[in-house]
Amino acid sequence: MLANSVILHYNMWYNWKTALSNPYFRNRFFTSIVLLSVILTAFAVFLAYIETRQGHTFYDPILNFIKPRDVSDFIFFVTYSTALIALVYAFSSPYRFLHLIQMYGSLTALRMLTLFFIPLEPPTSIIPLRDELLTQTFYAGNQNLKDLFFSGHAATLFLFYFFTVDKALKYIFLLAAIAVSVGVVLQHVHYSYDVIAAPIFAYIAYRFITKFSKHYRSEQTPAAGV
């Protein structure tokens, strides 16, 4: 067991060393890191801006049917434990990790577009989500209530589901995505429309990157060690 673990770790670092020695990969990787940093920085500024805008309030029959409950701890635990699993899975392959960076950057850019063109007011019965990680990063210490269409928590987990080719992890990511989707609706953090749209945009981000990445298909073959 220990020997297998050592071999796996050696193969992983060897793959990273080999990939980083390739100028094509190295340029794409560091360019993607820079672009993601720029997108995330712009997103944090953008979230502060949308809080100042007047938005629309939707009638949501599903929210009207459900009494709001605070499930912030559950949402926080499922979201970030699943994200950690996804990052570990992705990091085991340099190209896989590169693609996840690019997909998440694309997903965030899509969120900025939809949030800009679909300004919304939060549900009147909202119980604000307690997420210390978001509060101390993207929300800049403020309580952001208009980060609505589409749900970032749900979309990110659905992105992990589309991204992975491991069958066991696919089930885990799908269950996590569904659980968090139900959670944010139960807490009235999002309209049900925000959650329904999340997997659609996650799939768009996934397909956009897989279509234009010539290395991705080879990563999905057993010979590539996925």
Walk me through what this model shows:
- This protein has 226 residues and is mainly alpha-helical.
- It has helices at residues 2-20, 23-50, 61-65, 72-91, 94-117, 132-136, 152-163, 167-186, 192-212, 216-219.
- Helix 5 runs antiparallel to helix 7 and helix 7 (152-163) runs antiparallel to helix 8 (167-186).
- It starts with a helix and ends in a 7-residue tail after the last helix.
- Mean pLDDT is 88; it is low at 216-226.
User: Overall mean pLDDT score?
Assistant: 88
Residue stretches low in confidence (pLDDT < 50, at least 5 long) are: 216-226
By helix and strand content, what is the structural category? mainly alpha
Number of self-contained structural domains: 1
Number of helices: 10
Order of helices and strands: HHHHHHHHHH
Q: Helicity range of the residues? A: 55-70%
Q: For the report, how would you describe the main beta sheet?
A: none
How far apart, in Å, are the first and last alpha carbons? 19 Å
Radius of gyration: 19 Å
Task: Write down the overall geometry.
Answer: globular
**In what range is the share of β-strand residues?**
under 5%
- Give the tally of β-strands: 0
In short:
70% of the residues lie in helices and 0% in strands.
